Every structure is written in C-alpha cells, then in structure tokens.
C-alpha cells in the first residue's frame, strides 16, 4: 500500500494501535477465564465488551471531529491518553474474582471495564480519528486504505499472541509488556494529537463550504445489517467450535483472524471481492455448514469440522464485508460509517452473547445467523439497481436465492420441532445448553437367562451438555441405582471406591455434578461434596434424577468454580477427590495445570486418591496428567474400562493419582490399570502455559 510520506507517522500509529488492541483481547480473556469455569461463553462476553468499546471509540471519534475545533480535539485526546496511563498495568485484582453468586456475564463486563476499559476505548478511537484528521487536512480520498492497514495490525496482533507471546511469557509478564508498549503508544499518539495540522475548518478559504454528502437511511440500515450478520456469525461459529473442544486463545483466534482477513481484503482493494463468485460460494457454504450441523456428523475428525466451519465463516464474511466496502461513503462521512458499522457489530455480538441465551433453549443462534445472511443476500441484490440479478437473464437465479432463504427458515423450524419432540427438558444459561430426554437402550445382547429384557428395564433418562452425555439413569426401580455411562463399577472411579471400601466412612469430593451418578457409590456415614459451577445442573440432578435422593451418603454442594472454591476453603482431608468437570467435550484448562494439581493434593489425605476423568473425543489428555504426576512425584495409574452398549456403559478413561507408595496398599488399583504414557512433545501445563496443538487426536 502506497502511503504519502506526511502520513507515515499516522500510518505507524494506526498500525500499532490495532496491534495492541488485538493483543489485549486474548490476553485479558485468558487471564479471567479460570474465574468463570473456563467455559466458552467467557470469550463470547469478552468479544461483546470489545465490540461495545469499539463502538464507543468510534462514536467518540465522530463527535470529536464534528463538534470541536482542531486544536481542542488534539488537546482533549492527549489528556485522555495521559489519564489512561493511571490504570496500568492491566492486571485484574484478585479481589474481583467472583464469589459464585453474581451473574457471570455482568461480572465479566465490569472486570473488563475496570481493567482495560479506557485504554481499549482510546485504542479503538485511534484509527477513525487519525483518518478523519488526515482527510480534513489533505482531502485524501484514499483514507479507507488505512482501514485495511488497521486490520492488518489487528491480524498480526492476533496471530502473534498464540504463536509467539503466549508460549514464551507468563500471563503477568504479558500484561506488563503490553502496558509498557501502550505507554509508548500513548506518548506517540499524544504528540500527534497536539501537533499542528494543515487543513480543517480553520484552513478553508472564506466562503468555501465543507462538502455535504447525503447518506440515505436504507444505506445506513445495510451498514448495520451487514456488520451485525458477520459479527453474529463470528461469535456463533466460535461458540460452536470451542464448546466441544476447549475455551483457549488459539481456538478463539482462528475465526477472529478470518473475520479480520476479510476486512483487509475487502477494504484493501475491490478486486478481492468478485461479487458473483462469492454469491455462488455463499450458497455452497450454507449447504455445507447446515450439513455439518447434523448430529450424525459429530464423529468427523476435528480438523475437518474446524476447517469446514472456518471456511464457511470466511465466505460469509467476504460477502458481508465486500458489500460493506461497496457501500462505503465519501471520506467526509468516514467516522459516521465507522459508527454505524460498529453499531451493527455490537448488535450481532449482543444477539449471540446476551439475547440468544435468554430466548433460545438450545444453540440456535448459528442457524439463525446462517439463515439471516441468506435473506440479507437477497435483500442486497433486490435493493441494488446495478446488481446483475436486476437483469432479465439473472432473475431466475434471484428466485433460487429466495427459495434457499425459505428452505433455511423452514429447516430451522423443523429442527426445533424435531429436537423438542424427544426432549423432556431443555434449558440454557451462561454455561451452556442442557437437555434431558427419555430413551430406550439398544437390545444388543440377551440377558444371562437368555430371556428378552423387559422394555421398562431398557428405559433410561439422559442428560446432554452440548453433544456429550453427562450422565444417565435407568428408570426401572430395579436398575435405578446402577452407575452407568462413564461411572460403571469397572471404571476408574468405580475401582477407586472399591479399593477404599475397607476404610471407614469416606470423605469424597467431586468436581462436576452431572446427574449425580457418583453419589450411587456413597455408603451410610460417607460424605460426598459436589463442586458445581452451573446452578441448572444442580436443579436437574435433584429434580429429574434420583441418584442424590437415593444415596446413603450425606450430600453437600458448593456452587461456583471448583478451583476458586477450593482455594478459599481450609484443607478438606478427602479420601477421594474426583475431577470430572467438562462441558460437552470442552475442557476447563485451568483444572489441569500443575497449580490445580497442587491444590487437589492439598485437600487430600496423605493416603488419598485423586481421580481425573480424561475421556475425550478430540483431545489426548494422558500426557498432560502424566506430566503433572511426574512433576509432583506422584504415582499414576490409567484405568480404561470397555463399553457395554446394552447397559449404556461407555468406554471410560480415568487416571488415578496418589502419593508415592500409596497404591502398594491398594493392589486392586495397580491390577486394574497401567501407568499413563508421558510425551516429550507435551510440556507441563501451568496457569501461564497450556497448548492443545500437541494433544489433538
């Protein structure tokens, strides 16, 4: 991109501001992620905050350049830059950690506002503000190229975080490094702000009026709609990916990089957006992603699903941002364009992060966003007189688009009805979607008596979190107390209870409730404490399942993130502590770091057992747990139990850990398993470092 020498400093400042803007997003989100259970929705709410801060920055730039003189603009902006230095370094205080009672989304927004609110706001305003100053001073009609430059800085910031910054620096050092870089930026940007500039209102010749360019409201409506659609798709697809894998920066950043790449291409040059080519691709992307949402395809290799959804996101964003670039106004309306586009982005983000969990009982926002984008494509071409679809030969193709939009809408309707037909209860909150359904086990084998099992013996109730079973219970009174799914007597947790049976009353801690299956192992005198972050899980386990009611043990609950709760509690002296807190197939990384394992052993008796559930469709967690055991000098045994489809018992993988020599007193555990395999390719996970690249299946 060619830049006038006089604009070089401005270009550098815009680039640095965008780089810092998108470095701080994953940094601060990763810092607070463990506070809220490590769930995917944390990133969604963070993105909403960043979109709102971006909107406020654009609004500030718009009113600053429209309502104040040039010198006043510069000095006011410089003063705010100085004020923002007072909040550095950007490290959230431990006193801001949630106590488990607040609404998590509101708490996240308040923590972000207090920590990075003002710096992020000013970084957001930098690009439109400097572009407006350049446009006024030099009547530069090419200022939209700086939009692409800004997005290039954003892209570099995003790419460098998981590849260069996160693996090499602790979270605290990342925050300090970013704060130093921001301070240097503030000094440079402040100098530009108070620097004398040519042009502007004070330089116009007498009697010369500023150009008045009228923008129709239907054009503004399209700015909003196109931006909202791409933003909603970004968050919905990111949610879809991370809820079944893990809420970690590199999975957040892949979709966001594609989103930013589409901005760079579309606003860099019109040749990157051949309109009819991407319209055809849009139809292909709709069909491919709708097909990939089918429950029957969840067993596809992870890289195929991620690639498919990311490719679809890029196509959708190229359409939305390509049309947005075609509708960009005269540079005199630049800040207005930024504001309305950003307003649309906020609307799309708010729909996914705030509205969808309130109005939908399932994850339907991705389906809605896909359908809305098809409808929007139809509207754009109907409203554009220059569209090829307005020509007689292309009108049948426009009818095909109408039909495609209708099919998508009807498909959504029938999908919702089909899902509700076999569901007893479907509820949703910040932590995800929970679905309870009654089913019949497949009659794969006959009973030992060779008699056909009674239908009532085959009926069971299942709890689903996303696409993964989080517990089930047979409904027949004769089978109601049988632990099934991942918790059969042959599983690691079943083996641990059997090995400890000779002891007196047990103190047991369980991180993650599910349907309360582990309570079935409780005996009279035992104490079982469940640590659960999602209040809806507790409600469902108590109302729809009977493991908790039927257990002979005394049952207690601790609501909130398990790790934060255990950090506040005195030593619990557990005989057995089970870690089983996964949402769908997503892993809360902060529960598998060395600091987490140190905390677990602080709450165990010297001869206690730590049981870690590592069954996962996408990730190979053995070396992560093995590395922690090796670092702490603990014995570890991997217990793999086979599945039994007729009895709804799943193949389960648990790793049992204990102090050196403890398993020698419990020979049944050593006989039931083998040492887990470590890997030289998997580094020890800490609160400052974790990587999914090396453990993906």
Give a verbal description of the structure.
The protein has 21 helices and eleven strands. The chain is α/β, with parallel strands linked by helices and 697 residues long. The protein has three domains: 197 residues, MFS general substrate transporter like domains (Growth Hormone, Chain: A, Up-down Bundle); 206 residues, Growth Hormone, Chain: A, CATH 1.20.1250; 208 residues, Rossmann fold (3-Layer(aba) Sandwich). Strand 1 and strand 2 form a beta hairpin. About 3% of the residues have low confidence.
Write a short abstract of this structure.
The protein contains 21 helices and eleven strands.
Outline the fold blueprint.
Elements: H1 8-32, H2 41-67, H3 70-84, H4 104-138, H5 144-168, H6 171-194, H7 217-242, H8 249-268, H9 275-292, H10 302-326, H11 334-359, H12 365-383, H13 395-421, E1 425-429, E2 432-440, H14 455-458, E3 459-465, E4 468-474, H15 492-499, E5 507-511, E6 527-532, H16 535-543, H17 547-550, E7 554-559, H18 562-568, E8 574-579, H19 594-602, E9 604-613, H20 622-632, E10 634-641, E11 652-659, H21 667-672
Parallel strand pairs: 5-6, 5-8, 6-7, 8-9
Antiparallel strand pairs: 1-2, 2-3, 3-4, 9-11, 10-11
Helix pairs in contact: 1-2, 1-4, 1-5, 1-6, 2-4, 2-11, 3-4, 3-6, 4-11, 5-8, 7-8, 7-10, 7-11, 7-12, 8-10, 9-10, 9-12, 12-13
Question: Which structural traits does this protein have?
Answer:
697 residues, alpha/beta, 11 strands, globular, Growth Hormone, Chain: A, Rossmann fold
């Amino acid at each position: 991109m060619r830049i006038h020498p006089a604009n070089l400093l401005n270009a550098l400042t815009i680039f640095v501001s965008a780089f810092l803007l998108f470095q701080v997003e994953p940094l601060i989100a990763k810092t607070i992620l463990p506070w809220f259970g490590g769930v995917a929705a944390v990133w969604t709410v963070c993105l909403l905050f960043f979109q709102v801060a971006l909107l406020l920055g654009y609004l500030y730039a718009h009113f600053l350049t429209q309502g104040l003189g040039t010198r006043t603009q510069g000095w006011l902006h410089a003063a705010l830059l100085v004020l923002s230095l007072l909040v550095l370094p950007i490290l959230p205080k431990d006193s801001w950690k949630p106590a488990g009672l607040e609404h998590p989304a509101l708490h996240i927004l308040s923590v972000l506002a207090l920590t990075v609110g003002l710096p992020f706001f000013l970084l957001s305003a930098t690009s439109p503000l400097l572009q407006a100053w350049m446009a006024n001073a030099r009547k530069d009609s090419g200022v939209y190229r700086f939009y692409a430059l800004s997005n290039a800085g954003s892209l570099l910031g995003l790419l460098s975080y998981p590849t260069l910054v996160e693996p090499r620096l602790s979270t605290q050092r990342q925050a300090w490094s970013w704060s130093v870089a921001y301070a240097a930026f503030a000094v440079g940007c402040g100098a530009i702000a108070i620097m004398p500039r040519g042009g502007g209102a004070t330089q116009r010749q007498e009697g010369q009026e500023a150009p008045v360019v009228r923008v129709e409201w239907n054009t503004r409506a399209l700015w909003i709609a196109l931006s909202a659609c791409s933003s909603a798709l970004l968050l919905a697809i990111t949610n879809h990916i991370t809820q079944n894998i893990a809420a970690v920066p590199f999975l957040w950043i892949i979709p966001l990089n594609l989103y930013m790449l589409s901005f760079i291409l579309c606003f860099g040059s019109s040749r990157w957006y051949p309109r009819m080519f991407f319209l055809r691709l849009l139809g292909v992307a709709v069909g491919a992603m709708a097909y990939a949402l089918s429950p029957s395809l969840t067993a596809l290799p992870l890289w195929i699903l991620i690639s498919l959804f990311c490719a679809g996101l890029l196509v959708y964003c190229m359409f939305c941002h390509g049309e947005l670039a075609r509708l960009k106004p005269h540079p005199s309306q630049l800040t207005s364009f930024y504001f309305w586009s950003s307003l649309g982005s906020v609307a799309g983000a708010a729909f996914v992060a705030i509205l969808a969990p309130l109005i939908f009982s399932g994850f339907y926002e991705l389906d809605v966003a896909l359908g809305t984008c098809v409808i929007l494509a139809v509207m754009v071409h109907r409203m554009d007189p220059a569209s090829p679809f307005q020509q007689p030969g292309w009108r049948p193709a426009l009818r095909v688009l109408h039909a495609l939009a209708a099919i998508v809408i009807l498909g959504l309707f029938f999908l919702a009805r089909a899902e509700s037909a076999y569901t007893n209860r479907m509820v949703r909150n910040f932590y995800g979607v929970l679905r309870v359904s009654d089913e019949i086990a497949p009659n794969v084998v006959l009973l030992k008596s060779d008699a056909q099992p009674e239908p009532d013996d085959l009926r069971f109730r299942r709890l689903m979190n996303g696409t993964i079973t989080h517990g089930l219970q047979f409904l027949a009174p004769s089978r109601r107390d049988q632990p099934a799914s991942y918790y059969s007597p042959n599983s690691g947790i079943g083996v641990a209870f059997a090995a400890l049976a000779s002891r007196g009353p047990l103190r047991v801690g369980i991180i993650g409730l599910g349907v309360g299956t582990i309570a079935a192992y409780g005996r009279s005198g035992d104490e079982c404490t469940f640590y659960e972050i999602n209040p809806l899980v507790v409600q469902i386990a108590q109302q729809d399942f009977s493991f908790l009611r039927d257990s002979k043990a005394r049952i207690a609950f601790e609501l909130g993130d398990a790790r934060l709760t255990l950090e506040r509690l005195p030593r619990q002296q557990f005989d057995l502590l089970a870690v089983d807190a996964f949402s769908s197939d997503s892993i809360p990384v902060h529960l598998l770091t060395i600091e987490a394992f140190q905390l677990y052993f602080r709450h165990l008796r010297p001869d206690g057992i730590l049981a870690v559930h590592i069954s996962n469709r996408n990730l190979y967690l053995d070396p992560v747990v093995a590395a922690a055991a090796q670092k702490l000098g603990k014995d570890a045994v991997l217990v793999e139990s086979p599945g039994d489809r007729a009895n709804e018992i799943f193949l389960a993988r648990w790793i049992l850990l204990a102090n050196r020599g403890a398993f020698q007193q419990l020979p049944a555990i050593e006989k039931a398993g083998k040492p887990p395999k470590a890997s030289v390719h998997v580094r020890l996970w800490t609160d400052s470092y974790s990587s999914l690249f090396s453990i993906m299946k």
